[in-house]
């Protein structure tokens, strides 16, 4: 049985469907990404897995425990980082914070102190462990939140936008930690809208949009779905939906758009695409052919899903 | 239980790190009753019939201050977790909900109880208060008042989940206790309809016992309120919390 199993899970708020019959599983040692824009249903899914939100229908299991029927057993096997630095008590020291949560997970006395000390050292917080959290940098706060999620030696870690608001160096350090956590055999379920982060970290990703999973596979396999392995990016001014150009147009600000078109033969198809855009009345500002990214795949897949 | 005491310790540590805590803690239990004592002294024109009434005023105002703090302790802690963003990290742990809620509340209850004892001592020294009830009775009343206050606290905490900001409702509850339980005057001088309202509130019996009333009867009534209000609070909170988890409004504020 996979540590995370989600089967036909749905959540409805009145008439609005936030999560629409999604199913997936994540294996031990796997970093599994839930990707999608804001409001896609990622955080709602994570909150159902934490037992903070009751599903309308379907089942979610953590380490074999149904989160709705046996929430306490499920939470014992689960660590979660939700809400980033806001999830911390700023008037406690890092050590006091971990000791408080250790008690909530049933750790006491010397065991709790040893576990907190080990985690503070592991996440490079030991030299500042007895300072108030309010004096920590954002990166340190996020590492402390991650340390807290590891207190109960969980089988599954849920990380909701763990690098949001971090500078590039801190984000990289945190990604290294996530990789190390997964290498220990834990399942990491990561939600993010940073496609590069998911590409770098995740063995598999699920694209979520409108509450539904529109694609689920390894990042490499998803990129290969685009065809011959290249994407033409054409920057345009004056694009309009009625121009009937191929691919997906993404607004990039100041009245400019980027047309992204998966192609199999970029040398032949890029000039044709530029000519077609110019003929349609759009001004071509720049064009290039690049290796497809996960974001290209997402734009293509989400666009298809929205048109379907 | 370890989660409960962890909550007590965490809440205490955080309170002590705000420097104005000690001012409020030491000064208010004197300032608040003093306002009433001085007014009553003036109305009694220099002391006729006032001496025996001092203890009633001090016990009434101190008891009200204690209820004032503690009835909002559970809801206040919950509201703080909501607005601070720490609620979901607590709620996603396996610790029992009641422990998460009552741990910080017990800190408030214990601290404010100690503060009231200190206030009583200060008023005894400063204003020459002579107490009607022996201290074991006062202690028994204080202990018997914890469950019903927690019950009221759980009702208000349920309202926090339901309506988020309930400060108006909290002040209404505080005002009701203030007016209808006779904190600065004997219940007998209140209008009849207000006496009937006071008769339905547990603090009335707590004050009656503190003021030399039939403490055995008063304690039995308090125990009845303990069971009723604690059960009402627990049931209401459990129901509203489940509803909030269905609606997805646990962490919203």
What does the model show?
The complex is a heterodimer of chains A (308) and B (253). Chain A has 10 helices and 14 strands. With 308 residues, chain A is α/β, with parallel strands linked by helices. Chain A has 2 domains: 4-217, Rossmann fold (3-Layer(aba) Sandwich), CATH 3.40.50; 227-291, Alpha-Beta Plaits, CATH 3.30.70. In chain A, a hairpin with a 2-residue loop joins strand 4 (57-62) and strand 5. Chain A is elongated, with a radius of gyration of 22 Å. The two termini of chain A are 34 Å apart. Chain B has one domain. In chain B, helix 4 crosses helix 6 (97-127), helix 4 (73-84) runs parallel beside helix 7 and helix 7 runs antiparallel to helix 10. The model of chain B has no long low-confidence stretch (mean pLDDT 82). The interface between A and B is medium-sized, with 38 and 30 residues.
Distance between the termini of chain B: 28 Å
Uncertain stretches of chain B = none
Structural class of chain B: mainly alpha
Architecture of the largest domain in chain A, according to CATH? 3-Layer(aba) Sandwich
Ends of chain A: how far apart? Answer: 34 Å
Tell me the CATH superfamily of the largest domain in chain A. P-loop containing nucleotide triphosphate hydrolases
Report the total helices of chain A. Answer: 10
Tally of helical runs of chain B:
11
- The tally of structural domains of chain A comes to 2
Number of strands of chain A: 14
Q: Which chains have the largest interface?
A: A-B, 38 and 30 residues
Give the rounded overall mean pLDDT of chain B: 82
Beta-strand share of residues of chain A: 25-35%
Work out the oligomeric state of the chains in this entry: heterodimer
Indicate the low-confidence ranges of chain A by residue numbers: none
